[in-house]
Write a structure and sequence with these properties.
Order of helices and strands: EHEHEHHHEHEEH
Shape: globular
CATH architecture: 3-Layer(aba) Sandwich
Number of domains: 1
CATH topology: Rossmann fold
């Protein structure tokens, strides 16, 4: 089966919740990724229950008549922190804190988080053999799953762009392969013009 992970769009920054909604730019990114995936034969759609992931999934499921299944195992590791600061903002504002964070020092129990994510995605894979499945989720989820597929220690080792698309082949025999990471052509102004033509 083909597993497609899509990161949520850009959310608003929040000092009051770890689960903020999308920003206006994030909503536009969600519309663009919905158009990008429109011609693919996606047979099941899952999402993290966090607001930013659900709002990113909504344009796609709304346009194509899919049922959206929420899965609590693909939530972000920061779900209980009470605040949300996009990592690229943290990187600009406090580079040393960002380095500690992505090395695993700022993420609570990164190994435990990876275990949850892998078990959850394997559950989705097992329930959808022979199908193409989209999962709207988070940058941390994409990082630890990709690290697992590549046989790396759990860590945040690359920056998935907002509404970036990541593809994996998942065989019944247990092999897991990376097909593509960080597809973002749908975010270019040129592609947007072509898509609307």
């Amino acid at each position: 089966m083909e597993l497609i992970l899509i990161r949520h769009g850009l959310p608003v920054r929040s000092a009051e919740t770890a689960d903020p909604p999308l920003s206006p730019e994030g909503h536009e990114q969600a519309r663009r990724v919905a158009r990008w995936l429109a011609h693919e034969r996606i047979e099941a759609v899952y999402s993290s229950p966090m607001v930013r992931a659900v709002q990113t999934a909504e344009p796609f499921v709304g346009a194509h008549g899919h049922e959206l299944s929420l899965h609590p195992g693909v939530v972000e590791f920061d779900r209980d922190t009470g605040t949300y600061v996009p990592l690229e903002v943290l990187k600009q504002e406090d580079y040393e804190a960002w380095k500690v964070f992505v090395a695993g020092g700022g993420a609570p129990d990164i190994a435990g988080f990876q275990k949850l994510v892998v078990a959850s995605l394997e559950e989705i894979i097992a329930a959808n053999q022979g199908r193409r499945v989209a999962v709207f989720c988070h940058g941390g989820v994409i990082n630890v799953w990709t690290a697992h597929v590549l046989g790396m220690a759990p860590r945040l080792f690359f920056e998935p762009g907002y509404t970036s698309v990541h593809r994996y082949l998942c065989a019944r025999s247990g092999e897991r392969n990376v097909v593509a990471l960080n597809e973002r052509a749908h975010l270019s102004d040129r592609w947007a013009v072509l898509a609307e033509a």
